[in-house]
Amino acid sequence: MKKYYNIAMVIGLLIFLPFNAYSSEEKWTSGPVRGHEDITRFAVLAANKFIGHDFYPVVAYGDSGLISKNFLIQGNYQTDFPSATLCRRYHIDLKDCNLSRWQNNPELQIIHSLRNLPNGQKQEVPTLLNTLQGIRQIIIQNTAYALQFHQQGKENLFFFWIGHVVHTIQDSFSPAHVKRNPNTLGIIDMCIYGKKVDQVCYHHLLDTGDYIWVLKWGCLNGRSFACLKDEAVDAVKASAEYLETVYRFIQNNLQDDFDYQDNDWEKNETKKRNLNILFEDYLNRYFKNIL
Ligand SMILES: [Zn+2]
Fold first, then answer.
1. 187 secondary structure, DSSP code
2. What pTM, to 2 d.p., does this model score?
């Protein structure tokens, strides 16, 4: 049996070798095998163009989360490959702050736009509606968390946490994570990782739905916008609009006299309400149920 398995593997490798030369570099994940960096690069270009100046740090061509000095990219990358900063935010003990614990954490699937896992024997898998609500909530909460750093003049941390939110948004356009109606972008299903469940789409360990580039002549190297898959283009648009919305929020709320230094943004109901109003339209566009 083992021998056949090995032969099958060799054949598999041979078949995928021609694609692998480029595709292993271009997955819908961040870092050495990446996708998020390029989607963010295009989104920052579009958002800065809309804003009229380079408000967001421009992402260099070929930048990678592993080595990037760009805080947007760092926050994005560390969503997949956790650091102490990420673990602290989600109350994870530093001794448990490793890749395996992070990626299999039942309650943190949602930051990748996946359904959280049932925690403990008796719990049910969260419904699609619950998961959607959870995503909308975590986008708002983490945006508020990021904005607090902007108000404190800690720009690096502000960009870092905005990059983290952008990761959640981008993952929601990967067909390996979320099934959308390609025309309306309405969400049909949100997938689950690490546990197969009836009637719920399953995210494989290595999922080809995570590739962001089209396989066609002229797109075999380089990272041009024209070579992005349709869903990756949608991810660029949604990321850019998110960045623009954050900027608009800052413009609208910068001049008020609220003392941000001593207050936790998330506990300030007025601020939270303002944030919800501005983002409602955005969330309704990109995080709506198919119904
Ligand atoms: Zn992710």
1. E
2. 0.84
